[in-house]
Design brief:
- The protein has about 120 residues and is α+β, with helices and mostly antiparallel strands.
- It is about 15% helix and about 25% strand.
- Strands 4-3-2-1-5 form a five-stranded mixed beta sheet.
- A hairpin with a 5-residue loop joins β2 and β3.
- The protein is elongated and about 65 Å long.
Length: about 120
């Protein structure tokens, strides 16, 4: 995102969004459907139905910024339906999401069974 932009929160819009929407449509969605402040110090993250593109909307000083990432041969992990329209994650978790990690598969390491050490 923009250098020097202070981000305090990251909100993922759970439902897929029509990617023909741009800044105007997405900012209205943040305000009316997610019931959040689009001018806040947060990233608002949207996904398309195929889960191969995300858009990130944020406010920087005097205007909105819109960022897009398209995967060429994979899909983004995304939260399942929940009781809220948006899910909050940390900035670190957002970076992991961009790198391809599935934050919602909380499975431990596999248990290994050995018979000897040599």
């Amino acid at each position: 995102m923009h250098a020097g932009c202070r981000i305090e929160q990251v909100y993922l819009c759970r439902a897929p969004v029509d990617f023909r929407k741009s800044i105007g449509g997405l900012s209205v969605l943040v305000e009316q459907e997610l019931e959040l402040n689009p001018f806040g110090s947060a990233l608002y993250v949207f996904i398309n139905r195929q889960r191969d593109k995300i858009k990130v909307l944020y406010w920087h000083r005097n205007g909105f910024c819109l960022w897009l990432k398209r995967l060429e041969a994979d899909k983004f992990a995304w939260p399942k339906d929940g009781d809220t329209a948006a899910q909050t994650i940390t900035l670190q978790e957002f970076e992991w999401l961009l790198e391809g990690f599935d934050l919602w598969r909380n499975s431990p390491h596999k248990t290994l069974h050995f018979t000897s050490v040599s």
